[in-house]
Amino acid sequence: MAYNDDAVLAKLSSLSETQDSIVGVAQWIMFYRRHADHTVQLWLRKLRDSPSHKRLNLIYLANEVVQQSKARRKEEFLVSFSPAVAEAVAVAYKGATLDIQQRIRRVVDVWRDRGVFEVPIQQAVDARIQDIDKARGTAVKSGLGGSIFATASSSLPAELSPLATPQHNVSKSLLSSKSAVKTANADYGDLMGPGSTVPSAPVYAARLSGLLKSLAQAEGAVEQCVKARRELVNQLQKLLDTNRSALLDEENELETIMQRKAKVEDKKTEVERAIIAGLPNDEPYITGEELNDDRGAEPDRPEIEALTPPSNDEEEFEPEPNSAPERSPEVAPENLLPSRTVDVTNSDSLSGSGSRAGEVVYKSVASSTNGAKKRRLDNADEFPDLGGDAAIDADVAEMLRKDSSAS
Predict the structure, then answer these.
(1) 214-227, pLDDT tens digit by residue?
(2) How far apart are CA 267 and CA 273, in angstroms?
(3) Which of 30-34, 42-46, 166-170, 276-280 has the least mean pLDDT?
(4) For residues 338 and 350, is the Cβ–Cβ distance under 8 A?
(5) DSSP 374
(6) What confidence category does residue 360 fall into, taking pLDDT thresholds of 50, 70 and 90?
(7) From CA 46, how far away is CA 159, in angstroms rounded?
(8) DSSP run (H or E) holding 108
(9) What is the rounded distance in angstroms from the CA atom of residue 187 to the CA atom of residue 181?
(10) Element (H, E) at 222
(11) What does the DSSP assignment read for 36-89?
(12) More confident of the two residues 137 and 92
């Protein structure tokens, strides 16, 4: 069957819900992919004129065509369906039963999951369905018990809500601008291109008038798109400024917290060192400032008690004649030496000392041994009696006499 409008409309009218029918018609349409734009226009017109169940079949047909084209990397039908798919889905979805709406929504979910269309096109399709649900005033429930759009909107942060409307306007204006620009560029190429033929003057003037209309429509569509895009950029700029200001505040707060953390770590290290040094548990910890205050005030000097040396006063005592001297238990026996009179020739010099012959005189002497006092032998004679007066040597007696006279 040759390609013409009647052939295309006949194929679309014979379409049923079975898989074989959908795949067969899709293969025939894809064979004439060079007529993709015209085929899509006929498809959209047929969808508008069809009842609700037939519209669902046409949606299935479009799904088969675009997915097969994407898999085979033939972009003709993807480009042609992109400007018309949002409007087609809205026409098929509006006024349909709940079951048909559920099926259309599943097809849209497949497009979203597999990324069949570009993100703006997909957003436009979702927005059209959401607008229909809001206008009807009922929340359309999905298979899991909630609206797929309500889930998406509820997960949107409040800070991003001002961006939803500008982005929706951009998506809508982008679809119309692409179609208008594509038509205007094609008309311009046919009439003003390097390989175009110049017709007669009346025909040429009519075509130029038609080209001007196409360019005017494209200009208006692009202006709307630019206006919507500028509004979106302004909202994004406001959001960016708000986040920049918040970022500066958070950075300052982070710096303050880091400084406090470092200060606490230093204090913790100082306290641990004090614990290791043996600070008693019951004694309060002195901080650095309190320690500096304590160092600033010098304590008074303590009073020093004068050292008192032991007394060296001599105590004399005379023991009874012919009696043995008493010995202190604290004094060693060898420290006590008795003094006896020595019978020498110069008896006068010896008697001049004021002591009686044969008497022993003791004096107590201060000693550093165990803090006790020792007795000192004191006699008028210079030398003690060594015993044996009769057997003293004459030379010794002479030496003693000379020493006594010299003194």
Answers:
(1) 899 889 889 988 99
(2) 10
(3) 276-280
(4) no
(5) E
(6) very low
(7) 43
(8) helix 98-114
(9) 10
(10) helix 201-276
(11) HHHHHHHHHHHHHHS-HHHHHHHHHHHHHHHHHHHHTT--HHHHHHHHHHHHHH
(12) 92
Rounded Cα gap, residues 301 and 355, in angstroms: 56
Closest CA to 85 of 132, 38, 129, 121: 121
CB 59 within 8 A of CB 104: yes
Q: CA torsion, points 289, 293, 294, 300, in degrees to nearest 10? A: 170
The angle subtended at Cα 402 by Cα 396 and Cα 403, nearest 5°, is 90
**Chain centre to alpha carbon of residue 241:** 24
Beginning with the edge strand found earlier in the chain, give each strand of the sheet holding 362-366 in spatial order: 316-317, 362-366, 373-377
Residue 373 CB neighbours (<10 A): 19
Give pLDDT tens digits for 94-111: 888 888 888 999 999 999
Q: How far apart are CA 129 and CA 149, in angstroms?
A: 9
AA identity, residue 167: Q
Predicted pLDDT of residue 294:
52
Number of helices followed by number of strands (H, E) in the chain: 13, 3
Which residue type, as a one-letter code, is found at position 163? Answer: L
Q: Look up residue 327 and give its amino acid.
A: R
User: Are the beta carbons of 76 and 65 closer than 8 angstroms?
Assistant: no
Among the ranges given (198-202, 307-311, 314-318, 397-401), the one the predictor scored with the smallest mean pLDDT: 314-318
Please give the structure tokens belonging to residue 233: 């950029």
At residue 317, φ and ψ (nearest 5 deg) are -150, 150
Sequence-separated (6 or more) residues with CB below 8 Å from residue 393: none
CA–CA distance, 203 with 177 (Å, rounded to integer): 28
DSSP tag of 369: G
Of 87, 92, 72, the C-alpha closest to 27 is: 72
> Tokens 């002479």 correspond to what residue?
398
